[in-house]
Amino acid sequence: MIEIKSKSDIKKMREAGKILADTFDVLFKHAKVGISASFLDKLAYDNITRYGAEPSFLGYQGFKYSTCISKNEEVVHGIPYEDKLLLPGDICTIDCGVYFNGFHADAARIFTMDELDPKVQKLVDVTTNSFYQAIPYLQSGNKLGQMSSAMQTYIESFDMAVVTDLYSHGIGRKLHEDPLIPNYGRPDSGVTLKEGMVFAIEPMVNLGSPEVLTLDDKWTIITVDHQWSAHYENTVLVTDNGPEILTIH
User: Fold this and answer.
1) What Å distances lie between residue 8 and 13, 83, 172, 195, CA to CA?
2) Which residues of the chain have pLDDT under 50?
3) CA 172/CA 14 separation, integer angstroms
4) DSSP one-letter code for 59
5) Considering only CA atoms, which of 86, 94, 44 is closest in space to residue 69?
6) Which of 16, 67, 116, 204 has the fewest CB atoms within 10 Å, i.e. the most exposed one?
7) In 3D, which of 41, 33, 98 has the Cα closest to residue 69?
8) Is the pTM of this model over 0.85?
């Protein structure tokens, strides 16, 4: 069942989203060549908690960190190890959540270590742009599949692959709520959107095969062919006047 958020709920989610947006501002200032993933994870923790908020991921199903930091062929859920360093030519996605006043916000940003291979830069651009191409369809009265279909069409027009085993999702009092949202599909599929629905929309795009596998750490998901992947995400509110992104300034 998809929960419709009240005006009070939405106000709280906006507050959580602002804290998360600010946390990414801090991370962008420090994510440089030579920096470790664990250092960035600690920065995120410190920034979130200084607001009196909690990192959504810390303790989630036993996860021991505040962020997921996924490099290169890692798609999502990368562990921010001390020896995971940012190197020239790398890309990494930092995925982070904030829990504040009873509600979650969830977002991910792609960090690039210049100089990038041109095809990797294109991957970063297509992944980010696919989100912005798709979310205008998150409007009351539309089918959810219109967003998913638009995202898939855009990504595949660049001969890149949508990850089909991982999903966008609802969000609110819980980090993951109904529905599971494929980032592909038919425009006439899915629920009819209503004002007050809130979703975490997160395209995951691979340069090669759409298939993925989970490493022995039980968290890190990588591409099956070891080609590179990118991931971008925001928490989005459905309104009668179109989408409102809650996790950007």
Assistant:
1) 9, 43, 12, 14
2) none
3) 11
4) T
5) 94
6) 116
7) 41
8) yes
Contacts of 234 (CB under 8 A, 6+ apart): 107, 131, 135, 200, 201, 202, 245, 246, 247, 248
Token pair, residue 237, equals: 């509110």
pLDDT per residue as tens digits for the range 95-135: 999 999 999 999 999 999 989 999 999 999 999 999 999 99
7-245 CATH pick, 3.30.565.10, 3.40.50.300, 3.30.470.10, 3.90.230.10: 3.90.230.10
What token pair was written down for 8?
Answer: 């009070």
Enter the tokens of residue 118. Answer: 């041109």
Q: Write down the pLDDT at residue 141.
A: 97
Q: Is 78 helix (H, G, I), strand (E, B) or coil?
A: coil
Contact yes or no for 108/89 (Cβ under 8 A): no
Which H or E run contains 17? helix 7-30
Question: 99 has which bridge partners?
Answer: 54, 104
